Task: structure prediction
Amino acid sequence: AMGDAAVGDVDVDPLPYVDDEYDEPGMRDYVDNLVAEEMGTFVPRDYLVELPAPPEPTFGGSELLAAEYKRAMEGAPPRKLDATRYTPRAPEGEDARSLVAWKEAVRNARAQVEHTRAQVGSLELLQQFGGNAWRHSNVEAGLMAAALQRQLDAVRVAIDEVNQARKRRLDPHRPRFQALSRKWSETAENNLQLEVACAELERDVKRLRSEAEARGIVVPGAEGAAEGAAAVAG
Result:
């Protein structure tokens, strides 16, 4: 048949521009149900089985990254960040009389002040240059989107060319396929009618033979005729 191809272990014989049964009422639902049933038993092939296993990451010798990678692979939740150190607090209780505790509190407060100053500087830079940076980013995103759109259009054109080539290849054979399909349907119907007729003849032969035996009449070749009728019906 036209369009024979092998995909993995599945033989594909598509005639999309010859077969018209798909447009018949109820045929689409029937096909969709068959596809869904097949997909329920489909086991996809492992496309990575022939590739070598990836090397274990070393993270440049960083124990912190290695520990985080192990946590993620084990599915453990991430450790919550300790935000208490970012809140300046005065020593309390016994620490209120400790010079070391007060020095630590002052050091933490100065660190928070410097962090706040850095945030203010970042906000000022964002206010001054953020608009232009955002517009430049939008331009780059637009260029990337346009490039992807061109690739998509090229793929669609290639798909259309494949479909057109298949149609040109199948169209000349459409009359012959349709004629063979009609001939097959007629032959199948004739065979069914012949099978029914042979079954009726076999019943008639058995009935007539029984009537003859009941009257004491010997019918020459009756067994052979019955066997012949049965062979034709089979």
Observations:
- The two ends are 30 Å apart (CA to CA).
